[in-house]
């Protein structure tokens, strides 16, 4: 895309009321537009990042037999009343229509997915079944001060699975856990997995996936020599205590929960009447699990975790563009022709290039480029025109690699 046509522009200042680094940078760079506290619109650059995160998630969910659907977000109130959520979920947005009908906005979708699954899975032969979606969620959150990390509207991947036995569920639970860790790693993050909350045997297991960042709202203790990690809300452990697994001194840190998985047992199938016939023809309730992942939060956590003093730094996997092609001499017709040719060649071969063809000082272009955080910057300047190799600057490390045009075409052009 030509940057001269990109309708968003970078800004020097973020709105005064925006305190979170993720939102300040995303707004200044033109990725998001703030509508009100906790509600953002995603502009071309931001939408591309979300789409890339979604691609990674889809691939992994499909690989573990998840079937993607798109559920309604405007919900009838009846299933919410049947499950008890209508009166007990404090973040549920409730709507009354002009004909005095009641509705809820989806904050999670157990109430919708359970009847859907029940309708299509009448027999043990139809199970296990895992359904997922990527979509908007609405929550009447009291605090919305963490930028895109805590929205009143946000994007989530939510998956729900149904099983005929606890063993089958437990096995799948581990599979999902591995898929989650893979997704976070691919997004450039290290996620720590908190142990089962509570710890009593009667309590259902849940895992929270935590990424260390000062912008988070959770405090965790973790072990640096093994994978032990626990949320301080549920554990008594604190900094310096011995790790229950290997005895080394625990560390304490602030983290953001980028995902979690729950064993829901038979609560929703019972409340909403989902039974299947077992091998003997008897009615049974399936065991249900739910698996959430905050997509917009993930984007914000990546900004928080990887940004430097100059701006955002995207990992290649989710960056809005692979290359930032910067013409440092926009008034030189030879440079324009050279950069145009590079742009045409690379885009024709499928490389996502943002091409800064604007008539702006080179220094300003570089500052903007640092703020935008595209992983590699390719500069067309005097050297390139003199027939020397091109500079490819790595945004994260600042390292410079030199490429001839041919070498560059080999790296990006195939
Ligand atoms: P939190 O403790 O942060 O409120 P939660 O326990 O309410 O999270 P879930 O209801 O299980 O989380 O939602 C699944 C995932 O969706 C969370 O792990 C998080 O990544 C994301 N998420 C939850 N609430 C929000 C929000 N208000 N804004 C953005 N992402 C959210
Ligand atoms: Mg919450």
What do you see in this structure?
By secondary structure, this protein is an alpha+beta fold. The chain has two domains: 3-306, Bira Bifunctional Protein, Domain 2 (BirA Bifunctional Protein, domain 2, 2-Layer Sandwich), CATH 3.30.930.10; 323-412, Anticodon-binding domain (Rossmann fold). 31% of the residues lie in helices and 26% in strands. The chain has twelve helices and 21 strands. The chain has helices spanning 21-28, 44-63, 77-83, 85-88, 110-120, 166-186, 267-272, 295-306, 333-348, 362-372, 382-385, 405-412; strands at residues 32-36, 39-42, 67-68, 74-76, 94-96, 102-105, 129-138, 153-163, 192-193, 206-212, 218-222, 229-231, 251-265, 276-277, 283-284, 287-294, 323-327, 353-356, 376-380, 390-394, 400-403. The strands form five sheets. Strands 3, 7, 8, 9, 10, 11, 12, 13 and 16 form a nine-stranded mixed beta sheet that branches. β17 (323-327), α9 and β18 form a beta-alpha-beta unit. Mean pLDDT is 95; it is low at 198-202.
């Amino acid at each position: 895309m030509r940057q001269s046509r990109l309708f968003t522009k970078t800004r020097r200042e973020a709105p005064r009321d925006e305190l979170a680094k993720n939102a300040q940078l995303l707004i200044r760079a033109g990725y998001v537009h703030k509508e009100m506290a906790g509600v953002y619109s995603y502009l071309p650059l931001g939408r591309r990042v979300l789409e890339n995160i979604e691609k990674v998630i889809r691939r992994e969910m499909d690989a573990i037999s998840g079937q993607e659907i798109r559920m309604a977000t405007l919900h009838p109130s009846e299933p919410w009343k049947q499950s008890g959520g209508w009166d007990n979920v404090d973040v549920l947005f409730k709507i009354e229509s002009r004909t005095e009908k009641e509705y809820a906005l989806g904050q999670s979708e157990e109430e919708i997915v359970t009847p859907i699954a029940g309708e299509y899975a009448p027999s043990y032969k139809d199970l296990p079944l895992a359904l997922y979606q990527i979509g908007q969620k609405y929550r009447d959150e009291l605090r919305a001060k963490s930028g895109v990390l805590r929205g009143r509207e946000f994007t989530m991947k939510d998956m729900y699975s149904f099983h005929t036995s606890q063993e089958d569920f437990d096995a799948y639970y581990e599979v999902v856990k591995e898929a989650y860790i893979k997704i976070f790693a691919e997004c450039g993050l290290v996620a720590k997995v908190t142990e089962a909350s509570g710890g009593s045997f009667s309590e259902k297991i849940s895992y929270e996936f935590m990424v260390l960042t000062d912008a988070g709202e959770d405090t965790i203790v973790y072990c640096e020599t093994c994978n032990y990690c626990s949320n301080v809300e549920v554990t008594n452990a604190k900094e310096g205590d011995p790790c229950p697994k290997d005895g080394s001194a625990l560390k304490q840190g602030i983290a953001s929960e980028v995902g979690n998985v729950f064993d829901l047992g038979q609560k929703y199938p019972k409340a909403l009447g989902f039974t299947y016939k077992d091998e003997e023809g008897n009615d049974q309730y399936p065991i249900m699990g739910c698996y959430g992942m905050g997509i917009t939060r993930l984007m914000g956590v990546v900004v928080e975790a990887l940004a430097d003093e100059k701006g955002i730094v995207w990992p290649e996997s989710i960056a809005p563009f692979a290359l930032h092609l910067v013409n440092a001499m926009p008034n030189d017709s030879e440079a324009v022709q050279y950069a145009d040719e590079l742009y045409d060649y690379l885009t024709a071969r499928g490389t996502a290039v943002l091409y800064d063809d604007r008539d702006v000082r080179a220094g300003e272009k570089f500052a903007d480029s640092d703020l935008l955080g595209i992983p590699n910057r390719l500069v067309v300047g005097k050297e390139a025109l003199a027939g020397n190799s091109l500079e490819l600057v790595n945004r994260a490390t600042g390292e410079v690699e030199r490429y001839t045009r041919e070498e560059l075409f080999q790296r990006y052009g195939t």
